[in-house]
Design brief:
heterodimer; A: alpha+beta; Four Helix Bundle (Hemerythrin (Met), subunit A); Alpha-Beta Plaits; 22 strands; B: mainly beta; five-stranded mixed sheet; about 10% helix; about 45% strand
């Protein structure tokens, strides 16, 4: 094991990437067993993994990847076919690779016993390996002296050759006395390139310089728009050529097969290619530090602005400073962004396994993989999304028979989509399964004494649904009788809220369930509206605000004993901000004022009117945590430092209603 | 500011540990010097709603948001209104570093750094001046004073759930 941490870090980062490529492509291969691009990508990933593991002296991992690579190589060379058994074997292999990498991370070694698996793999390779001729129908069976092409090759040629081109198998024999076989061979290739092009050859055109030319023979599959005599003539012009033999090959491409091929190509995913980009790997910690420093810069800039110095130079330099800070912030934000697909990619595999083991038919659709999000948020999202997707498969989608009975398509659909909406990223997990029985959720909540009967009576259906996020109301017990994992939805909600995000659920019985998660684009810096509440300054993130307005006391209406305002036909509940902050209200009530500022905030998928003392100004704020000692303060999500160096608290409006 | 008492008996230093002493109410308290990070003049404290009453609020310590607790409230001594706190010039905030977490402790005044050997700290088995015994490591005499040595860890994290929120 290496004592060099930096290399290890790189090893982890890269192996993660390769495992992802393997996982991605194996799914693709399962759908499209003849897609050699996919297999090649997998082969390369396994090969690179092997190389890295060998350098780092992780012998188990090296051996494992070596054997897997072997198998893929056999398939690649058409010595083995692809079937479910092989796919499953490869799946298992990838799991072992993942396990080993995890073990290296945790224990520093890769000592996992995979001898059983390796034996199975070996056995399968030995059983299945057949000579080329048996597995792939060779078209020119009769004359083994010529180079042959496989069925697959003929499709490739068919797709690429021009209409008038013919395909020839050509053997060019060099005079046995010639001193410069390599030179002559390259002349043959040169001539061939003039006449047409070489599909394949022995020796290979690229390494003819150091190849051994057996039997003084150069064999090739050659495509050209010339008649055979002409070709023989041309080759014979080369010095030291003993003999030229040539045979025309008819491509056997059936119409039916052709159609298949087209269909396949269409469904081929472009993502299977392993792309190499020119990038630098940076430790996320360093980016965090950079972000913090920009935060400091921003705070100091704000303080500088607050000084309000009356000087021409000062007035000149301030906008400049403003622009540079903004751009710097923007750039670092961009650097921290990553497409959410890097995390989504683990899910198709998971859904496949889950649906297989639960005997459900599931169409898993992912949308918006390119949506970019702060890296630190992406890292945190893995677990909650896994949980939601698991639930969708385990408890959401019904068994095929049950679906059929309810007049639904046998195959259920699970959607995972991400998109940007304003300064927020929305992630939705949606299934078209059985939905959630609200009354059972309520019943459970009553049993667990999460709410009182009186509270239940005041709740609408939507609010009742959200009870599912309460601790102790594990969905599996509530919604179906299938026993499941212990982690509850409360943990999911906590994680999302820890990211300054929000989650809510929509569900209709027999139609399905949809979880909507909204997240800030980035955690560190946000635009906020500064307001005054009870003499203190508070910040409300702009992303949570839909509008601000002044209302007159006579506009306040009463509905079921609560204050509301009617805004463009919408009834919006009103809340005194001091109430939600537990501030003692001395001047009896806001209602005594003639006019009061109201901030309409989005809270739990709804709008709430928050009455404040005064609307101040809009400002870019650097979000600071209140620290571990004060985490989870009700209705406060953090703090920021304002112009005069004081701390202002950030209002958390998500649960303020 | 704290006067550092010269360490004369350095040969005995191994057994002795340095304590920072400070005043809260009428009593002198001590905490291990290596737990104290710095002593600052109280800046403007922003009060945080929806927190326990001994949480005075948060301050800006060179860009970092640090919570401040009112030791008097936490120890269950007479309460003091926030206004009084900000007016008294001798009052200080002792910023302590506990498991990498910075927490400000509001005190009435900082005295000095003294050496106390471990044997000189007598355990207490019952409430002292109404202070719960788990907050106290023991008491020690130093000259004419009686110093109450605090167990900061227990004081701030009585149990795992006990946080300021």
């Amino acid at each position: 094991m290496s004592d060099n941490n930096e290399y290890l870090e790189m090893f982890f980062a890269e192996s993660e990437e390769y495992i992802m490529v393997l996982n991605d492509n194996i799914l693709e291969l399962e759908n499209d067993p003849e897609n050699m691009d996919v297999l090649n990508a997998m082969f390369r990933a396994a090969h690179s993994l092997k190389g890295m593991a060998a350098t780092m002296r992780f012998d188990h991992l090296t051996e494992l990847t070596h054997k897997m690579e072997n198998m893929m190589d056999q398939i690649r060379n058409h010595k083995m076919g692809v079937n479910t058994e092989i796919i499953d074997l490869l799946f298992a292999g990838i799991d072992y690779v993942e396990e080993m990498v995890r073990k290296i991370k945790e224990d520093g070694n890769d000592e996992i016993d995979v001898s059983n698996y390796l034996a199975k793999l070996e056995k399968k390779i030995n059983e299945d390996t057949k000579p080329v001729a048996e597995d792939n129908k060779v078209i020119n069976e009769d004359d083994s002296n010529y180079l042959s092409i496989t069925e697959d090759d003929s499709y490739t040629i068919q797709d690429n050759k021009k209409e008038l081109d013919s395909v020839y198998s050509v053997n060019v024999e060099l005079s046995s006395e010639t001193q410069f076989k390599q030179v002559r061979a390259s002349m043959i290739f040169k001539k061939a390139s003039e006449l047409g092009y070489i599909f394949k050859s022995v020796p290979n055109k690229e390494n003819v310089e150091d190849a051994n030319i057996d039997d003084d023979l150069v064999k090739m599959i050659f495509i050209a728009n010339h008649d055979p005599d002409n070709i023989i003539n041309e080759f014979e012009k080369i010095t030291d050529i003993e003999n030229v033999e040539l045979k025309k090959i008819e491509l056997k491409v059936t119409e039916e097969k052709d159609k298949n091929k087209n269909k396949k190509t269409k469904s081929k995913s472009t993502s299977s290619k392993f792309e190499v980009s020119s990038s630098v790997r940076v430790d996320i910690g360093k980016l965090d530090k950079l972000m913090n420093m920009i935060g400091e810069l921003l705070i100091n800039k704000t303080r500088l602005e607050a000084l309000n110095i009356q000087s021409e130079g000062f007035k000149d330099v301030l906008p400049q400073l403003d622009r540079v800070t903004m751009e710097l912030h923007h750039t670092v934000m961009q650097i921290r962004m990553e497409p959410i697909g890097v995390m989504f990619n683990r899910f198709p595999r998971m859904i496949r396994d889950l649906s297989k083991s639960s005997n459900k038919e599931i169409d898993f659709v992912m949308e918006g993989k390119q949506t970019e999000l702060d890296r630190s948020i992406i890292d945190e999202l893995g677990d909650p999304l896994t949980h939601l997707l698991r639930n969708a498969v385990d408890h959401g989608i019904e068994k095929p028979e049950e679906r059929a009975k309810n007049g639904k398509e046998k195959t259920g659909t699970v959607n995972l989509r991400a998109y940007q909406k304003g300064s927020e990223i929305i992630i939705e997990v949606e299934d078209d399964g059985g939905g959630i029985n609200v009354e059972r959720v309520v019943q459970k909540a009553r049993e667990k004494e999460v709410i009182t009967q009186k509270e239940v009576e005041e709740m609408d259906r939507d609010k009742k649904l959200q009870l599912i996020f309460e601790p102790g109301l594990s969905t599996n017990e509530t919604v179906s009788n299938v026993s499941g994992r212990g982690v509850g939805m409360d943990v999911v909600k906590k994680t999302i809220e820890g990211l300054d995000g929000e989650i809510y659920i929509r569900s209709e019985e027999n139609k399905g369930t949809k979880f909507v998660i909204s997240l800030p684009l980035t955690l560190a810096i946000q635009d906020a509206l500064m307001v005054k509440i009870n003499g203190e300054i508070f910040a409300i993130p702009l992303s949570a605000i839909s509008e601000t307005l002044m209302i007159k006391s006579e506009e306040i209406k009463q509905v079921k004993g609560y204050d509301v305002i009617v805004l463009r036909d919408n009834t919006i509940p009103l809340i005194d901000s001091r109430e939600s902050l537990n501030i003692e209200i001395e001047d009896s009530s806001y209602k005594e004022k003639d006019e009061m500022p109201v901030v309409i905030v989005k809270s739990g998928g709804k709008e709430i009117g928050l009455i404040v003392e005064e609307l101040l100004y809009q400002q870019e704020i650097v979000i600071k945590s209140l620290g571990d000692y004060l985490d989870n303060v009700k209705n406060i999500s953090g703090a920021t430092i304002i112009g005069d160096g004081e701390v202002a608290l950030i209002l958390d409006v998500r649960d303020i209603a | 500011m704290a006067k550092t008492k010269s360490i004369k008996n350095s040969e005995n230093n191994v057994e002795k540990k340095q304590y920072l002493t400070f005043k809260v109410g009428k009593e002198i308290y001590g905490l291990r010097l290596n737990q104290a990070k710095e002593i600052i003049k109280p800046p403007k404290i922003t009060s945080v709603p929806n927190t326990k009453d001994y949480i005075l609020g948060v301050i800006n310590l060179r860009g970092q948001v640090v919570p401040v607790i009112n030791l008097k409230n936490k120890l269950g001594l007479t309460e003091e209104s926030k206004l009084d706190i900000e007016q008294d010039k001798s009052k200080k905030i002792v910023v302590i570093n506990i498991n990498g977490m910075l927490i400000g402790v509001y005190v009435d005044g900082v005295n000095e750094v003294i050496n106390i050997s471990v044997e000189d700290i007598e355990g207490v088995s019952e409430k002292r001046n109404g202070i719960r015994e788990e907050f106290i490591k023991g008491v020690s005499t130093y000259g004419d004073y009686l110093i109450i040595v605090l167990d900061i860890d227990n004081l701030l994290f009585e149990n795992k759930e006990e946080k300021g929120a």
